Amino acid sequence: MGVLPRLVVFDLDYTLWPFWVDTHVTPPFRHASAGVVLDAGGRPVRLYPEVVAVLERLSSLGVPVAAASRTSETRGAAQLLELFGLQRFLQQTEIYPGAKTAHFHRLQQDTGIPFAQMLFFDDEPRNIQDVSNLGVTCVLVPAGMTLALLARGLEAFAGS
Ligand SMILES: [Mg+2]
Q: Kind of enzyme, top EC level (predicted)?
């Protein structure tokens, strides 16, 4: 294992879960049976299958984690993080519309961690482009977050 980032940041929609929280599902969300989360229409909503394992891996490595999302459905997104049990992994969450560089400036100010010490995963090329320009190591997520993609991101960071 090479040099580790001091902060790993994840987008939410189509990075941790396979939908847009402001469009494809209907808040408020709730727990049904153990481990099942439903939207207001009674439809089950899920994380990508390896997300919890990815966050547990980072936790075991001692690397802090944050979430950065441009969704306008701020409350629904925060509720899902809670219901999915992800809040315990997240040192910080930045969830509001706007350019993703705004989220990263806030993360940098609040944590004191330089952009060059951060690793970011997102499914949208425009976010990858914008945040790369800040000096953050960025990895495009083509089909949801996986352990393999985490490993590739950590390698990219160590080699940067
Ligand atoms: Mg996304």
A: hydrolase
- 139-152 pLDDT, tens digit per residue, is 999 999 999 999 99
39 is known as an active-site residue: no
Token pair, residue 21, equals 């929280």
Q: Is residue 13 part of a domain?
A: yes
Whether residue 1 lies inside any domain: the answer is no
116 is a domain residue: yes
Residue type, 73: E
The identity of residue 116, as a single letter, is A
CB-based neighbours (< 5 A) of ligand 1, an ion: 11, 13-14, 123
* CATH code, domain carrying 89: 3.40.50.1000
- Report how far ligand 1's centroid is from the alpha carbon of 14 (Å): 5
Choose among 54, 22, 60: nearest CA to 39: 22
The pTM assigned to this predicted structure is 0.97
Any domain includes 2: no
If you measure from the C-alpha of residue 43 to the centroid of ligand 1, how many angstroms do you get, rounded to a whole number?
Answer: 21
Residue 87 three-state SS: helix
Report the distance separating Cα 109 and Cα 38, nearest Å: 36
